[in-house]
Amino acid sequence: MNPRDIPEIREADAALKVAESSFPSRESAEMFRDAFESLDDFAEFCSPRAEVAQFIDNLKLSYARTIVKRLSQIDTKDFDHYIYYTIIVFVRMRPTLDKLSVIDPEIGNMLAECKVRFRPQIEDLVRQFQWGSV
Q1: pTM of the predicted model, to two decimals?
Q2: Confidence class of residue 131 from pLDDT cuts 50, 70 and 90?
Q3: Torsion angle (degrees, nearest 10) of CA 28, 101, 62, 29
Q4: Residue from 126, 63, 125, 69 nearest 96 by CA
Q5: Is there a contact between 117 and 76 (Cβ–Cβ < 8 Å)?
Q6: 96, 15, 86, 3: which is closest to 50 by C-alpha?
Q7: What are the tens digits of pLDDT across the range 104-119?
Q8: What is the DSSP letter of 88?
Q9: Which of 12, 17, 84, 96 could disulfide-link 38, Cβ–Cβ 3.0 to 4.6 Å?
Q10: pLDDT at residue 133 in the model
Q11: In the prediction, which pLDDT does 132 show?
Q12: How far apart are CA 123 and CA 29, in angstroms?
């Protein structure tokens, strides 16, 4: 059976495509998160065959790469969009991001460049939390 024929994988794949097409938006970020969670849940609870598990892993790596590469397209005035994606990438998708960074060292450079671009907004957000003004 083709992994794409498995309903849970087919649905997650479709959601990932929609999420990519509506990048950057909060809805897109949430769709990425939900699709990754769905794939993780399927892998954890259904114990798929090795080739299906590999397909899921590759799908997640591909879309994690897409998100990281597209972070540079987010304008600094759209800091809220940047935050949605970085929370998903650094928290929810961390194991996938770690694998991706080993496979493609350029990913780390891309993330570092985004951090530099958004540093003023990040520092302002940290100050707000420190002073309790959020």
Answers
A1: 0.88
A2: confident
A3: -10
A4: 63
A5: yes
A6: 3
A7: 999 989 989 988 999 9
A8: I
A9: 12
A10: 55
A11: 63
A12: 22
Among 88, 62, 66, smallest CA distance to 22 is for 66
Q: Which two tokens stand for residue 124?
A: 């302002």
- Which DSSP string corresponds to 2-68? -GGGSHHHHHHHHHHHHHHHT-SSHHHHHHHHHHHHHHHHHHHHH---HHHHHHHHHHHHHHHHHHH
Task: Output the six-digit token pair for 10.
Answer: 């087919």
Chain-centroid distance, C-alpha 125: 21
Whether the Cβ atoms of residue 6 and residue 51 lie closer than 8 Å to each other: no
Query: 105 with 94: CB under 8 angstroms?
Result: no
What residue segments make up the domains of the chain, in order of their start? 3-130
Tokens matching residue 73? 């397209």
For residue 127, give the 3-state DSSP assignment. Answer: helix
> In angstroms, rounded to a whole number, what is the distance separating the alpha carbons of residues 103 and 99?
6
